[in-house]
Fold this sequence. Notes:
The protein is an alpha+beta fold. Helix content is 43%, strand content 14%.
Amino acid sequence: MKRTVILALTVAVSASFFTANAQKKDKKKKKEKVEETMPVVLTTPSDSISYAAGITLTNGLVPFLKQQYGVDEAYMGDFVRGFEEATKSGVTEATKAYGAGINIASMVKSRMLPGVSGEFKDGPDTIQAEMFYKGFMAALQNDSTLFKRGDAEKFFKDRKDAMTNAKNEANRKMGEDFLAANKTKEGVKTTASGLQYKVLVQGTGEIPTATDEVVVKYEGKLVDGTVFDSSYERKDPTNKFRANQVIKGWTEALTMMPVGSKWQLFIPQELAYGERNAGKIAPYSALIFTVELLGVEKPKAEPTEKTAVPSKATTKATAKKKGRK
Length: 325
């Protein structure tokens, strides 16, 4: 986080003249047309090239302001006033600091605060924006009245770790409870590893080995029914990969399925992603997959030097080349 703040400060300071007067904006204003007090007269070639250069170097600036700083085109009048102020009076240490403050506030509000709030979502503690900002400013002003920095960092880490551990334990238990109830259902079989599966369609084709490439269609769900991935939603719903390049539960199931089969898999967390967070899949999640095995492709054998036989053309070319030496 420290590196992020330092980087943001560097960017903010280098572009502070763009935002030094941003707080003066009235959100109810309509798009303003900037009127020049005196007409511009180009009297010399230097005037003309300078004016043209100014126009040329604004190419791409408006999209940049919109993307990087969230500046609405309706407020370009405010931007121009800030620009004029900075070019006439110069960028001082005070205006650089002021501009950096505005930029960092924008970054904290749009990125940092939502990020840390998300980490505490559904937990016993919640992040309150007003107190977050007060703590942020207290650190910048070296105010240790309520917390010394080291104490604050330890307190934050301990509470975050405790909440994460509680979430992980609840997620693990939810998966274990689901699998315990599921294994008693009709048609569900359980292997020695703990993998559960149900045959929806029994194929009669080849059964792949771990090193074979398989062609499949699939849908993946959490035990609460949330779909986190589905090849059926893509333009090309088929996927090809080696059977041992996926999670353990998939590898085990694929090496038991004949081509033409459609199975439902119920995979314990230890045969899935375990303690890892994988996108929409929280740590220690049991998973449910519907898998169709469409085909098998054997790995191609690589030719070795012993089995490679040179062609006649290659032999003649080599002999001719040696003759020139």
